[in-house]
Amino acid sequence: MALAAHPPLLIVAAVRHARVVAPLLLVLSAACSRSPQPSNPSPAVRALDRHGLDTIVGRRVRGDSLSVAGARFQAGWLVPAPDSGASYAVEHLARGRRDIIILKREVGRDGALPVWLTTDAAWLPRLSRSQLFATSCGYGDRADSRLFAVVENADAPWYADVRWAWMANTTTGRLEPATVRGLRCENAGYGGP
Predict the structure, then answer these.
(1) Which residue ranges in the chain fall short of pLDDT 50?
(2) Going by C-beta distance under 8 Å and a sequence separation of 6 or more, which residues neighbour residue 112?
(3) How far is CA 129 from the centre of its chain?
(4) E-assigned strands of the chain?
């Protein structure tokens, strides 16, 4: 709408003509509320649920996987952090019907084994039967190991319907929501048996 494109000009006009301020604001409010909505809005950014996982953060672990009572290891991958020189890893655990994502930073070595410090942990949303957890994601043609997402399953080389996405921020050591716009994730099982 042309009026909504120039709100500062409208405010100046309203101040000059004080008698019409209230009617003008009502017209503007109604016009802005009738703006067209996209026919297929992108999924909302999904905040991370950290409830009850604060005891995991700050724990050190020697070796590869963090032991969480009742949780099974699902996947894990390294996340290089060239700007800080530190090594990070993301770990995906299943606990009952819920999944946990853990971000950890390498803080030393114990002989041949790495020593990790857990810097963040969060629950993933419950997935429907048609959804999968994807880790080979990126914007455009560039894969980024910091990104992971929940996608709708598809028989295609790439998952195009990304529902929610997050990023391992290697600067802050935190897991953060990421935009799904332009994000796609590789279907590693496509074309296989």
Answers:
(1) 1-42
(2) none
(3) 20
(4) 60-62, 72-81, 86-95, 98-110, 113-123, 131-134, 137-139, 142-143, 147-152, 158-159, 162-169, 174-178, 183-186
